[in-house]
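This protein record is not my work; I was only asked to verify it. Would you go through it and say whether the fold makes sense for this chain? Here is the record exactly as it was handed to me.
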Amino acid sequence: MDREEHKIAPIFNKESEILILGSFPSVKSREGNFFYHHPQNRFWKVISTVNGCELPCTIEEKKSMLLENHIAIWDVIASCDIEGSSDSSIKNVIPNDLNMILRECQIKRIYTNGGTASRMYRKYCQNQTGLEDIKLPSTSPANVAYSLERLVEEWDIIKK
């Protein structure tokens, strides 16, 4: 079990209205220094489909798509003990300070990407933000119960 620090800066601007939170970056995301960097993670396919956008390929295209659609993203956890990318192994959590984003934006809703992100948000962050999260099914390749089509159906709520 390794102690890992979150080194990826949040993506947001003053027009951001919704905040999507993951739990903690996967090994691939930590290596690539960007969110949902594992090629099998369906986050970018889901977000681009829901927003009627072309699938972004580069980090710059991904950032632009998020900001153009008033979406901020970050993770609940600033540092933790974790084995590889296993959410179930997460221990000794130090949460991110979400107020850094909430002070700058007009966040109306917070969505969490999967059960671990939701549990961690409710445990460590909800008291400081005063906002309830809406838990969405994880876009992780480990979530085999959800097809891409089913994920898109569930995630479509972010546009309403």
In short: DSSP finds seven helices and seven strands in the chain. The mean pLDDT is 95.
